Amino acid sequence: MRLLTLLGLLACAACSPMALSDSAVAAPQGPRDPAVRYRNSDGSRIDKPWSEVLAWMWEATVKKLPPPPSTHVNGYDFPVVRDAQGTAPAPAEGLSVTWIGHATALIRLNGHTVLTDPHFSGRASPLSWVGMPRKVPTPYRVEALPHIDVVLISHDHYDHLDEPTVRRLAQQPGGPPVFLVPQGLGAWLAARGIAAEEVAWWQPWKQGRLSAWALPAHHWSGRGLSDRHTSHWAGWAVQVGAERVYYAGDTGYGADFADIGRRMGPFDLALIPVGAYEPRAFMKDQHVNPSEAVRIHQEVRAHHSLGVHWGTFELADEPLDAPLGELSRAAAEAGLAEGVFRLLKHGETWTLKGAVPGAPPPLAP
């Protein structure tokens, strides 16, 4: 199925980088430009040849990968929470997070509401009728969310930047949120009538009490065959008052995280990807596995972490629910206290500080 999807779309921009000609500079400035190619902090770009991409997809098709989830007898019948916590506005003081699914999380931080990589559509695809289907329904509609103050976009892949969703958010009652995007991505939103503010790595941004910083990630960008690396990719830090939250975006493991911990840590909460990591030889440059996610938690000096980028789209060869067991094992091996690094149900809320009612315990493996 994944191979047929690739051939049908002529690109698998959601998860598989293809090679292209090289040009350019390590940290370019300005709007999206086909002549500009962004890099990782170590100077690398992730470019895999078509032969390697097709070989991976062919092997997955022959071996019928990924296998079905093992923890739920009804296939993709994952628990989904729909309650008042998930759509509650931010109290004046406090910190909580609701996991919507995949990399989409609703953060309430001392009176401010922040949404990461919003995706509420049925597919991670340029087309509504073909492409990577959502395996677990979204627990809440965009229109049911509280007023969003800031949207953090990590990069332009279809599972992180969903056009129908950002269009709906831009039309929310009370005025659009501020869309913060990495360098080069503002023009894509502007072409759709959506104002966005580009922020370079390590550059601060501030509005009122809320401060944000774009931070390095080890990844790549592109939504088609001609725009590889023409916009940057990033993680984000946000702070209101004394509380600070880190969102790693989509990333492979590298030296960036120790640097982020030294320069920006500690964090009260980190949102770290834990899924889409097999086969390791193919995915390691662009997606961390649960053991690496635990290492990131430690290196950025997070007090608590939430696993994201799992359980929603089948982007790789491991079962959709593999992080349930793998993250628990990795956290135990690293000596983390129980409940420090959690996975939530779709739609579930975790309250760390403040008046929003607490969420149930994390899912057991």
UniProtKB/TrEMBL annotation:
Signal peptide (from-to): 1-26
Gene3D superfamilies referenced in this protein's UniProt entry, alphabetically: Ribonuclease Z/Hydroxyacylglutathione hydrolase-like (3.60.15.10)
InterPro entries, per database record: Metallo-B-lactamas (IPR001279), RibonucZ/Hydroxyglut_hydro (IPR036866)
Record's protein name: MBL fold metallo-hydrolase
Keywords carried by this UniProt record: Signal
SUPFAM superfamilies xrefs: Metallo-hydrolase/oxidoreductase
Originating organism: Curvibacter cyanobacteriorum
Domain (Metallo-beta-lactamase): residue spans on this chain: 112-310
Record has Transmembrane helix as a keyword: no
